[in-house]
Design goal:
By secondary structure, this protein is an alpha+beta fold. 21% of the residues lie in helices and 31% in strands. The strands form six sheets. Strands 18, 19, 20, 21, 22, 23, 29, 31, 33, 34, 35 and 36 form a twelve-stranded mixed beta sheet that branches. Strand 6 and strand 7 form a beta hairpin. It is globular. It starts with 5 loop residues before the first strand and ends in a 17-residue tail after the last strand. About 3% of the residues have low confidence. The structure holds guanosine-5'-diphosphate. The site of guanosine-5'-diphosphate has 17 residues, from helix 1.
Amino acid sequence: MSSPNIRNICIIAHVDHGKTTLVDHLLRQAGTYKSHEVMTERVMDSDDQEKERGITISAKNASFKIGDTKVNVVDTPGHADFGGEVERIMGMVDGAILLVDAAEGPLPQTRFVLEKAIQKNLKIILCINKVDRPEVQDTDMISKVIDKTFELFVELNASDEQCDFPILYACAKLGWCTTDADRVDALVKGTDKGNFADIYDLIMNLPAPKVMDSDKFTLLVTNVAYSDYVGFLAVGRVVSGTVKQGDQLIRFTVDSQGKEVREKFQAQKLFVFDGLRQKPCDIIEMGDIGLIAGGSEYMIGDTVGSEGCEVLPRISVEEPTMRMIFSVNTSPNSGTNGKAIQSRELRDRLIREIRNNVALKMDPTDEQDQFYLLGRGELQFSIIIEKLRREGLEFMVGRPSVVYKKGENGERLEPYEKLTIDVPEVSAGDVTNMFQLRKGFLTSYEQQNNASSDPRVRITIEIPTRGILGMQSRFKTITKGSGIISSEAIGYRPHQGEILHRITGSIIADRLGKTTAYALAGIQDRGMLFIGEAVDVYEGMVIGEGNKDNDINVNVCRPKKLTNVRSVSSDGITILHGLKKMSLEQYIEWIDADEWIEVTPNVIRVRKKILPANLRSVRRQDRDD
Ligand code: GDP
């Protein structure tokens, strides 16, 4: 059987190393853009949040042609919270371009994705980008980057063949690259003119998609999507045969008990990637990546095929281990800032989100206007909260918690994570200590680069998922922002008892009104305030973090009394110390189980779940949920 005239590849790159620019030129020089199309600056990372956070959140695909060969570029999310997705994407491609900035070298963040690529036995091309940067003074520096990359491959147990990677020297910005190190100087100086011919040649040398020796159509569902127009879509690579619009197909899936189930359906619409779009088509060829509409709710790991096709082994999707309650906004200020949505709307909005994000699930709670959103990490949750907030919605979210299970003898089990941590050696002790205090245990400790002036270590720790909740900012502070952490779910183990979340209580407004500087000044020594004067507050709203372990209810609206008696203190100017301004992520890490974050387009507040002070205890006990 002849191989398909297709190459499926992914690009592994640290943010800012030039992935978007490279894809842009790959498409442009291949003539993918039509003359009337306006190119956006960053073709792949189009989401606002992706730009701000500098990470790829959802994978988008692009495609172009080299002669008659179609190339699909599958985008990979770069963060460990999306680990499951990275793994599945790697299953669709046969080769990868590892893009490395010539001045910065390979950075630890790309290690996670590169490791998966190596394990999947992908053929990898090293592309050293930005060789034109003024910091890159000589080819010696580039050689060092190559050596470092080679060391990384060895460390990640790459095969001899993988370690023998082809090398490209590139200036993606100006649209040239070369395999010939001797040409770099002239190309940078502009005395030689280059293009993308060498990268196209190397992509052509990557293996064609592996296909099965069968003429029956078979596709493994690697991702699912939803469109308001055509409904559920199965995304995947065609492993054998071809599919035409109108074909009778079968979806091989499993029910909630894991029993095999078949569903017959008709391929109503087909799409392939074309440039940056999904293009409707009549046929999806063997080896190509495409989308099929027609079946009902597809599940990742399903096989879709024609009668008599081979059912492929299911691929696993990591089960959600964390959950967060999303609630209708019931605060007194609800609807004053954005659109306060009702229960049905909130549910429908969350359903839309989980349809396009397989790592998420939704469960009902005992309350009609509250829903559990289940996922794999705090980052996933904060991205969704931010997305809804930017749509102008008002709602509330609770503290993230873990999903418990019951063991065979009814004992409580909790999810565990394996953390892989890359940190400068100087902060290794503090980091280990921090996680050990939270019931983690060290399983390995390895020196990474002894000879370097900035030696780093790689630590692995096994820890209850609860132990990593709310630890991101502490980790960043301890490692001065240069630590990298990735986590992987490793199943359920017996519950480890209480893990201390926060040792301080909240300072809470005891009435509706506007804050005064006078009142705030009177209480500011009792903790750290989150808000300043002239802010609308209500009873039960948290306005700061106390020094003591219990909560305190305070009047922050008290006006200054005017008296005839003058004294130095009462006439003195009120001075407020600095406020503690918290971001959404910080609030998510900070709040306790009996508190909500009230999310509105302009303001993020924290409040007690029970607002009236007389119905709520100030003692901070038994708040572990
Ligand atoms: P991404 O985050 O990996 O998608 O990176 P981008 O493609 O957005 O590039 C990040 C920055 O690097 C942009 O300002 C680009 O213009 C710049 N850049 C990309 N390629 C090159 C290059 O070859 N040389 C130089 N000097 N800058 C580049």
